[in-house]
Amino acid sequence: MAEYDRAGELKAFDETKAGVKGLLDAGVTQIPHIFYRAPEENHLRASSAGQTKFSIPVIDLGGLFDDSIRRNEIVKKVREASETWGFFQIVNHGIPVGVLEEMKDGVKRFHEQDTEVKKQFFTRDASKPVIYNSNFDLYSAPSTNWRDTVTFQMAPNPPKPEDLPEVSRDIVIEYSKQVMKVGDLLFELLSEALGLNRNHLKDIDCAEGVGVLCHYYPACPQPELTLGTSKHTDLSFVTVLLQDHIGGLQVLYDNHWIDIPYEPGALVVNIGDLLQLISNDKFKSGEHRVLANGAGPRISVATFFFTAMIQTSRLYGPIKELLSEANPPKYRETTVREYYAVFQGKGLGGTSALANFKI
């Protein structure tokens, strides 16, 4: 590829405040060079030969409260998925399908409203309650992803309703309330799966901070040249993802990219770096990515459970109850804020930030 002024093109793209959707609205038929994916991503695209051999676990939470035998079965499935895949889907999680569908519609409405209205939420200040932009790591990542995002910081200090965009205000409040209940339940199951007291992870504030990232992946004129989201792991304790029918989400498993299919009414759950760190590698933060697509727009809503946006001095290291002579700590203690700073500095598409915290 001929040399080009990457820094200049990134700045020009960012200053439009119109995101990837703005490029399509302007009629582009060829994607700008900033979106060409990094060379190391290329050889992996065709490596989904394992698709037929592997499929991501789907865990039915129905009957969870009926009896201890059923609960133990569910905990066992959560443990196995968290140790091997770092990913699983959940059904019968308690959020009505109508709420899931309206949330996807609300995200679409936000991204497809008049650009001038959207621009009032445009910022790269991560402390704002509402953040609209394209690529949080625009200036640090090796390649730019074909997606726009609006993020809502919903806990522990939720925005005032009037600070939320009018087109999606009510559903963002309702969905956030419901997905936080799911998060609480997941932290109970994950605590039990680690052999800990049911409330252990909640008691150390894993569920305290909640960011809701609403992604919009416009149809791409040259999907083979770019990615919707580069290969990465999440920095959260846990991420709960609502995705639509378009598809494209893949997890790296046994050196194959495995599709995570759309299941109506299901939510995708994945272990984040911080849970891998405090579980001392017992649970795995799964590498994943999103392919660009000629169809679209693809809508997804990723709820991150972690506390980077609030000042807290709480230190997180491998949980003492999980350690022994045979299983010494593999990571040093860190604050979530410090971990977040390292993650932000690296951007997506590189190596995991966990390597920086190894003992």
Automatic annotation (TrEMBL):
Family named by the database record: Belongs to the iron/ascorbate-dependent oxidoreductase family.
Coiled coil: none
UniProt source species: Rhamnella rubrinervis
Cofactors required: Fe cation
Residues covered by the Fe2OG dioxygenase domain: 206-308
Name the record gives this protein: Fe2OG dioxygenase domain-containing protein
Signal peptide span: none
Pfam family, one: 2OG-FeII_Oxy
One MF annotation (Gene Ontology) recorded for this entry: dioxygenase activity
Keywords, ordered alphabetically: Iron, Metal-binding, Oxidoreductase
Source organism, top-level taxon: Eukaryota
